[in-house]
């Protein structure tokens, strides 16, 4: 299984960025897909996830109203549209996949597969 995240980069505060994650070797349509992020010196934290049907999307409070997660099961991709970015959004963003979230969407240990991450830098 491979999860390849892309789309990171340098963006000015208040700007937008779209991250994408392409999955291979995965039964994509039967996996919950998620984005986490990790800033320097901080623990990895939950950003958003989306169920297989795209009916249920869960967001961290800090990104609600600014970030949108969506997926394309035909293309085995999950994306994160980010807007109104601020310094607190700067981090390495990781995509993750899991079939059964035994503890909850924000528990990284519940996800089975992880991508290598893509860096998002926000300049003031």
Number of helices: 0
> In terms of structural class, how would the helical and strand content be classed?
mainly beta
Strand content: over 45%
Uncertain residue ranges: none
C-alpha Rg, in Å? Answer: 13 Å
Nearest-integer average pLDDT: 97
Distance between termini? 37 Å
Largest sheet: 7 strands, mixed
Shape: globular
Write down how many β-strands occur, each being a DSSP E stretch of 2 or more residues: 11
What is the percent of helical residues? under 10%
Provide the succession of SSEs: EEEEEEEEEEE
Task: Write the topology of this structure.
Blueprint: E1 2-6, E2 9-12, E3 17-24, E4 32-38, E5 45-50, E6 57-59, E7 67-72, E8 77-82, E9 91-98, E10 113-114, E11 118-123
Describe the model:
It is a single chain. This protein is mainly beta. The chain contains no helices and 11 strands. The strands form 2 sheets. Strands 2, 4, 5, 6, 9, 10 and 11 form a 7-stranded mixed beta sheet that branches. The chain has a 4-stranded antiparallel beta sheet with strand order 1-3-8-7, with no helix packed on it. The mean pLDDT is 97.
